[in-house]
Amino acid sequence: MSALDGSIVIIALPAIFRGIDLDPLAPHNIGFLLWMIMGYRLVQAVAVTTLGRLGDIYGRVRIYNAGFAVFTIASILLSFDPFHASGAAVWLIAWRLLQALGGSMLTGNSAAILTDAFPADRRGFALGLNQVAALAGQLTGLVLGGLLAAWDWRAVFWVNVPIGLFFTVWAYRKLRDTGERHPGRIDWWGNGLFALRLGAILIAITMGLQPYGGHTMGWTSPAVILLLSVGVASLAGFVGVEMRVAEPMVDLDLFRIRAFSAGNIAALCASLAQGGLQFVLIIWLQGIWLPLHGYDYADTPLWAGIFLLPLTIGFFISGPLTGALSDRFGARVFATIGMVLFGSSFVGLLLLPIVFPYWAFALLIALNGIGTGMFAAPNTASIMGSVPARYRGVASGMRATFQNSGTALSIGVFFSLIIVGISERLPATMSAGLQQQGVPADIATRVADLPPVTSLFSAMLGSNPIEQLLRGTGILDTLDPTQQQHLTGGEFFPQLLSGPFHQGLVIVFVASIALSLCAATASALRGPRSADGDHGVRRGVTKDLVQVPDRTV
User: Fold this and answer.
1) How far apart are CA 386 and CA 380, in angstroms?
2) What is the CA radius of gyration of the chain?
3) I want to staple 137 with a disulfide (CB 3.0 to 4.6 A). Which of 3, 197, 262, 349 is the partner?
């Protein structure tokens, strides 16, 4: 449920924008679109470690159960948006942040609860199912969002309510806490600095994607430079605090455990490589491939989710299977091979033409899903099994923080790379295409000067901006019917966008291949399989002394 809501809004955004009457082409509305997506990721990245720590202190099941209630309340409030246009968008963003907090209470403790409940020789399979549930929710949201948005945009939030109500009651009645509790304190300074760092960077990315001072993007804006500087400075402050505080938010001593540090580095690289992939594939399908194959713009969100199903199926096949096998043979081989396959899928996508044969696309995204499944479950089991029992809550939160931070940053980075790619060719291509259809050169040039980010988000929202842009000039009514039909039909804008977009795809997929190799390398360096919790040191007066055959840590 938590993962589903991270993606269901992506597909439903066209219906949401229409439902609240928000113009997707208005430059100032791009920020609303970004924060509907990235705000959820920001809260999850910031909150999960602290909520995992609270689980260690007060009980993981107690925090987990409360997450169901918070998530359900937020879903109800989201579906009753009383405002209009920008006010409605602010309402949705605000309650999405609360919803993300409830989701963080779930995801920050679920892996720790399973690790407590299952013995080491069954833990990989259990965590594999957990990872399948998470990614299945994320990918199923792409299809479900299209189906529900076709009925009513509010339905994408209603769907959580009966599930949330039922499992809130079920969890309080049935779920039992089998883990250890260790009283402690919350690291408020560390939490504040971490939130400041990630928040400043994500706000800077959001502003950097928008035009500034005649530039395609706003990376030269003083505000963006200041926010990025604050993000870097607060990172240094965060590390300093965590090294001195008695009970840190991020226990840096855990990174002395080789399997823990290698697994989290691999997870960060993998999420950076994959986090923005959904958006790229959705833009590719909704904005170009589906319209060029005769699909109406109103239907492209639903069909984009359907055509991405092989990605889900690949993960469903490999996730539980490799999770179970990793219980017997260890995580390193499966996780490393998974990342190699994952990177190989990007090589294949890089070689596809922009108007591809679907069978080839389906095979490649299925390979991407298989590689992700081979990596996710064994890597999670390796991370969780490497720490002493008392640190499982904070370890689960740290793992989720790396993953969510990578995903949130990946979205901004992927968008930036795509915009860099299309900005070089799109204006000239659009101007020439409009003039070929009888649009005067001065109007064609003015329309072509539309910021590339606006064209990119139009494609993501499954809309054709040409008709709206030309309606404002009055020139559309002066053209003959054939020219009008061609300009406002389903092929003109996708054909204009396809060449520049492919140039952006090349940049994005090369970056993903490099990150996949980094993840595979880190995974291979995690070391041989170790006993459950056979490492771990703690700063301060007390230390956890764990006896293992060859040494005492």
Assistant:
1) 10
2) 24
3) 3
Bridge partners, 552 (sequence order): 547
Output DSSP code: residue 138.
Answer: H
Element (H, E) at 202: helix 188-208
Contacts of 343 (CB under 8 A, 6+ apart): 273, 371, 512, 513, 516, 517, 520
Does residue 397 register a pLDDT over 60? Answer: yes
Give the Å distances, CA to CA, from 273 to 199, 200, 321, 422.
Answer: 21, 22, 23, 20
- How much is the pLDDT for 542? 36
Answer yes or no: are the C-beta atoms of 72 and 125 closer than 8 Å.
Answer: no
Q: Which residue shows structure tokens 């390979």?
A: 367
Task: Give the pair of three-digit tokens for residue 340.
Answer: 């190699």
pLDDT at position 460: 67
Token reading at 357: 């044969």
Q: Give the integer Cα–Cα distance in Å for 59 and 7.
A: 29
Flag whether pLDDT at 463 surpasses 70: no
Close Cβ partners of 516 (under 8 Å, ≥ 6 residues apart): 269, 270, 273, 339, 340, 342, 343, 346
Give the number of other Cβ atoms within 10 Å of residue 480's Cβ: 10
Structure tokens at 60: 């993981």
The DSSP 8-state label assigned to residue 549 in this structure reads S
**Comparing C-alpha atoms, which of 324, 313, 386, 338 is closest to residue 123?**
324
Please name which of 417, 381, 358, 376 lies closest in space to residue 533, comparing C-alpha atoms.
Answer: 381
Coil/strand/helix, residue 552: strand
Closest among 544, 143, 113 to 305, alpha carbons compared? 143
Instruction: Give the separation between CA 298 and CA 286, rounded to whole angstroms.
Output: 10
Give residue-wise pLDDT tens across range 31-68. Answer: 787 788 778 877 877 787 778 778 878 888 888 889 98
Q: Of how many residues is the chain composed?
A: 553
AA letter at 416:
S
List b or e across 325-364, with b for residues whose CB sees 16 or more CB atoms inside 10 angstroms: bbbeebbbbbbbbbbbbbbbbbebbbebebeeeeeebbeb
Count other Cβ atoms within 10 Å, centred on residue 216: 19
DSSP conformation class of 284: I
Please give the structure tokens belonging to residue 131: 């990872």
Q: What is the pLDDT of residues 359-374, one digit of tens each?
A: 999 999 999 989 988 8
> Is residue 383 within 8 Å of 263, Cβ to Cβ?
yes
Q: What is the pTM of this model?
A: 0.80
The dihedrals phi and psi of 212, each to the nearest 5 degrees, come to: -150, 125
CB neighbours of residue 467 within 10 Å: 15
